[in-house]
Amino acid sequence: MASRTSRHGSAPGALDGSPRRRLPMRLLLPLLVLLALMAMLMLRGYVHSEILADHRVRPEASAAKVPDKILDGGPVIDTRSGRTTSLRVPAHHLVLTFDDGPDPTWTPKVLDVLKKHHAHAVFFVTGTMTSRYPDLVKRMVAEGHEVGLHTFNHPDLSYQSTKRVDWELSQNQLAITGAAGIRTSLFRPPYSSFADAMDDKSWPVTEYIGTRGYITVVNDTDSEDWKKPGVDEIIRRATPHGGKGAIVLMHDSGGDRHQTVRALDTFLPTLQRQGYEFDNLTEALDAPSAHTPVTGLDLWQGKAWIFLVQASDNVTGVLVVALAVIGSLVIGRFVLMLVLSAAHARRVRRRGFSWGPPVTEPVSVLVPAYNEAKCIENTVRSLMASEHPIEILVVDDGSTDGTARVVEAMGLPNVRVVRQLNAGKPAALNRGLANARHDLIVMMDGDTVFEPATVGELVQPFADPRVGAVAGNAKVGNRDSLIGAWQHIEYVMGFNLDRRMYDLLRCMPTIPGAVGAFRRSALERVGGMSDDTLAEDTDITMAMHRDGWRVVYAENARAWTEAPETVQQLWSQRYRWSYGTMQAIWKHRRALVDKGPSGRFGRVGLPLVSLFMVVAPLLAPLIDVFLLYGVIFGPTQKTILAWLGVLAIQVVCAAYAFRLDRERMTHLVSLPLQQILYRQLMYVVLLQSWITALTGGRLRWQKLRRTGVVEAPGGLIPRQPTRAGSGDRRPVG
């Protein structure tokens, strides 16, 4: 966004109420939106967390605490209600079990093969996969299969607390309830194998699982399909000997399972011809179903969970697209800025460059001022040091702090004070224009100081009769604080590189209020300064383009302005800028379909301004959001490297901008912190502006508190002693 300084006064018809009292309400909705998006991303990352394969090897442990009847028993272990029993599947019955799903690619293929051969199975599903693919779990239940818990995100429960175990079970059950409307009593621990592999680490967990109402199911035969040993080998390992019944371990998720699907299509008919039946577990044991229908609040909680997970996936998908858009915009903008600003610098700095004959005619400098008693003397004295002939008109817009008296008490030649009732900055500028004696008009703010050469540099482009307005180089004077340094970087990098780019593209969106110059005839042709928007400087600049005038940038016309020194003041200023820019874009939207200069600006300038000043800043924090997401959920190293890459591009652009502006590089030390903190503030401000615009809200003029600490480098005319009645001023050393 182009640089501006504070506006003042209160516009007629503005909303009542103190900005300070309204700050919490203004913050509430944008922060809620931001927190909601973050919550959706965190939820998405949580349910997409990596699931490790079932073949992880656990260090050997003693089995002294495991009852012999468990070690020598079957794969179905029941420790409910104080029991310690185990069961085996009857002869010629096979219970196929599939772990780690459901998987959107392989689970449907497994289900299709089972349906083809009229076989049932048990699917031990994880909560993460169930939450993401609930329709597959619903299909399992509808087709007569049983589902069991396999924890939510697949930790080794032997090394977890009972609180974590409870949480894994409840979340897994919640996902199954939301997907299929049932509860299940079957459980298989991650990294389990055979009953005789139970040890002193896993047995206490199995006992505890029973107290929570679950039956633990391990296996008799392991196909080891995760090794992809080939179809024939998977069948050989899965087949029991001598017609025995068995629980067979397979996988429908966790990797490429095409061998599993092919083996299943052969395994099922082959063993069916040998007299085997393929049942789910309770069918094989001739027991009541492991599924219990869920109704009431528990069912709605499950459905709400599934809804939120699906919503998080959809929101994340949209954010990924938005991230691609912002990445393209950021890189595209940086490339354009670097290339075009370099071309602009070469053009205006080449030997012999000039706009035409030197402009020496006198200039009227308009200084609208509202309660600027602390700053106005510095401003006026800086103008008195001007190397170019000028008259100075200070338009006091109903100040209540004696601003006009301060200027009058200075008793300086060629300085006039025009008083008016408080009517806002545009009205003050129009009043000054009506009282100006000269055809070239320079506008500045009452908290800004000029260098002696500023006015002369600012008006030289008017040697070209096509030029209607000139933007100067606004710089932050109070850059010693952290927030000041951040704004200094923004002004040099974001504003002045932009102006060079927009100058070459002939669509500069804003003449900064701190330092700008106009032809009187150009101003009169477009109707003067308008109060239709809160960004009168952007509004008048766009009007100039549409009227066919050229708007150019004078890099050596430097002005030093006092930037906000608190977050609240910065918030108020940028909120007004953002909202005012949106108003100006909307006001001039018809330029998109106009012909001639207006149409050119509408089809070139408005899209660029909208993309780079509204859309890109709104989406830019996604880079940091996905940084946080990647650091938490991985891949951490690649995420950090990608973010550092983006930061490196910004550092290069910033360093180049500082070099063009002949600024010291030391302030760039705070650039990484600016990208992390400052950008988030700008994001929330812009989001609030969007909300205000979309809801039809109106924003009042706001006056920022000034300290009068800014002076131009090199010093000014010595200050005169303060006279009685000159208002409240702070001496500056």
Describe this entry's structure for a reader.
With 733 residues, the protein is of the alpha/beta class. The chain is built from 23 helices and 20 strands. An eight-stranded mixed sheet has the order 15-14-13-16-19-18-20-17, with helices on both faces. Strands 3, 4, 5, 9, 10 and 11 form a six-stranded parallel sheet that branches. Residues 1-24 and 714-733 have low confidence and may be disordered.
Number of domains: 2
Q: Between the first and last Cα atoms, what is the distance in angstroms? A: 33 Å
CATH architectural designation of the largest domain: Alpha-Beta Complex
Number of strands: 20
Structural shape: elongated
Count helical runs: 23
Low-pLDDT windows of residues: 1-24, 714-733
User: How many whole angstroms does the radius of gyration measure?
Assistant: 36 Å
CATH H level, superfamily name of the largest domain: Spore Coat Polysaccharide Biosynthesis Protein SpsA, Chain A
How helical, in percent, are the residues? 40-55%
CATH topology of the largest domain: Spore Coat Polysaccharide Biosynthesis Protein SpsA, Chain A
Strand order of the largest sheet: 15-14-13-16-19-18-20-17
Overall average pLDDT: 85
Sheet bearing the most strands, described? 8 strands, mixed
User: What is the class of the largest domain in the CATH system?
Assistant: Alpha Beta
Helix-and-strand structural type: alpha/beta
Percent strand equals 5-15%
